[in-house]
Amino acid sequence: MAAVTPAAPRGAAPVRPVRVLVVDDSALIRKLLGELLSQDPGIVVVGTASDPFIAREKIKQLNPDVLTLDVEMPRMDGLTFLQNLMRLRPMPVVMLSSLTERGAQVTLDALALGAVDFVAKPKLDIARGLRDYAQLLAEKVKLAAQARVTAMSPVPQDLRDASAPRAIGYRTTDRLLAIGASAGGTEAIRHVLASMPADAPATVISQHIPAAFSTAFAERLDRHSRMTVIEATCDQPLLPGHAYVAPGGRHLRVFRSGARWHCRLGDDDPVRGHRPSVDVMFDSLARCAGANVSAALLTGMGDDGARGLLALRQAGALTLAQDQETSVIWGMPGAAVAMGAAQSVVPLSDVAERLLAEVSAAGG
């Protein structure tokens, strides 16, 4: 259930299309994005800009609802422009990112600064690749227009240098934590893991992210968490004090082998358009771990994870959904709430505490 704008009732004024300003230094990309986005009746491209200085003036003149923004631009890089924008006039921004190691790092920086979402540019034949992404790009732009945008707080320093927090005192290694997210999730997950102690139960994470970005995402989480955060590998045992990020483009499932939990990666078809899919991960946990799981579904577009969270609740797990107030896009958690999958709806700041409180209360 994506948080899309409902159709206007009969006799009511029609819903106003989303007004978009395209910012990119390439004339070809500006033209192509303008054409592709304009094909959607719910979008109007009000203008284009070739650099941040022109974009700044056009934002004042045209008052767009959403910006599409390329990172690599002349005169002022996209990150500096985004930082200034979020400080002076916070507004929804969808980044266009290259599928490279540098592109991954810059995109994660942009999301930390307050960008709502991103679309990865293909490495080759960009024009054709963007045409293939036209529907996804239009969907992300329309959802971004409804996003709750605030300037993000600075990313904290490496928590490994901080004094260790009080141990949570669980008595077995059976407990598992699970987190799923999409749009807005890279920062939401960072926030949750930054609040976890070093001895937290093994945690599995599925975030909708391209394959080229997931390694950088896991490394960033590791720098800002007391837990050890790594990209998951196939048949890897799940250990307390560790968090395992599903690789982009692969499903993550959990299974029991002897006395330990393990993760398994799959290249089977995407589920509801996603691989990794939160539903796939949650479903595997419901089948093999049930009441040993505490799970949270965080911000994101669509409804991936909602059915899996319901399966977990029916299997006896603790299930949480992030609330609308603190979600960038209340699609996935909103869908879970609508179908009764979440036992509690909590602000992002309380997610880690609620997950750990259940672990302590369960004694495991």
UniProtKB/TrEMBL annotation:
The keyword Membrane does not apply. SMART domains: REC. Coiled coil: none annotated. Residues 19-136 form the Response regulatory domain. Its main location: cytoplasm. The keyword Ribonucleoprotein does not apply. This is Protein-glutamate methylesterase/protein-glutamine glutaminase.
